[in-house]
Amino acid sequence: MPRGIFITLEGLDGSGKTTQIRKLATWLQKRGLDPVVTRQPGGTETGDRIRALLLDARSTALAPMTEMALMFADRAQAIAEVIEPALAAGQIVVCDRFTDSTEAYQGGGRQLGSEVVLALHKTICGGLQPDLTILLLPSFEASLHRARRRNSRTEAETGANEDRFEQEADAFHRRVWDKYREIALREPERVVRIEGDLTIDEINEQIAEAVAEMLVLRESQR
């Protein structure tokens, strides 16, 4: 059986990933493709527990290396339990964040650097790379504003405060933003950038076009 396809969506919190993943899943389903949709951190029982710790605003004492190690612990479990079995079965996997996020947030935001992140990725993830990464880059200010507003609304509705990263200073998020752009420039064949404050439908159209091109290419290689 041909190996499946691994698609990831990346970007700052508030960039619209959740909405676009839902739309992409619907787009694929309409074409007879039933994707496995997952997220990081999270997506497994173990991962959801790690996610709760990482995002909880009360987790104030996490050292940057601890934070990065937890991200990779979550990723290792997701690969073993969800991602690799689905790819081996020939399915399409759509994942909200992968190692690019760790390179951006811990490598860039926490200033740990890319080298340690990529070394851990090679060791823990076996070098598994997405076939296609969609990087959403609306304006820096718009992303941050939406993320902080969303988390305030979620806390009011559920009592859960998951804005540990959003509480960081703007300089932290600017480093994350810059590192994402660096990754995209380094790997243009894998990473498709969608930039600017576009409408939801405009973004969806660009994502669908990128995915359609990849599907055609994959079919031609079989």
Could you explain how this protein is built, in words?
This protein is α/β, with parallel strands linked by helices and 222 residues long. It has a single domain (5-220), classed as P-loop containing nucleotide triphosphate hydrolases (Rossmann fold), CATH 3.40.50.300. The chain contains eight helices and five strands. It has helices spanning 17-30, 45-55, 64-88, 99-109, 114-124, 140-158, 170-186, 200-220; strands at residues 5-10, 36-39, 92-96, 132-137, 191-195. Strands 2-3-1-4-5 form a five-stranded parallel sheet, with helices on both faces.
H/E order of the elements?
Answer: EHEHHEHHEHHEH
Strand order of the largest sheet: 2-3-1-4-5
Assembly of the depicted chains: single chain
The number of strands is 5
Structural class: alpha/beta
If helices are DSSP runs of H or I spanning 4 or more residues, what is the number of helices?
8
Which CATH architecture would you pick?
A: 3-Layer(aba) Sandwich
Uncertain segments? none
CATH topology description: Rossmann fold
Main attributes of the structure:
alpha/beta; 12% strand; single chain; Rossmann fold; 222 residues
Write the layout of secondary structure elements.
Blueprint lengths: L4 E6 L6 H14 L5 E4 L5 H11 L8 H25 L3 E5 L2 H11 L4 H11 L7 E6 L2 H19 L11 H17 L4 E5 L4 H21 L2
Parallel strand pairs: 1-3, 1-4, 2-3, 4-5
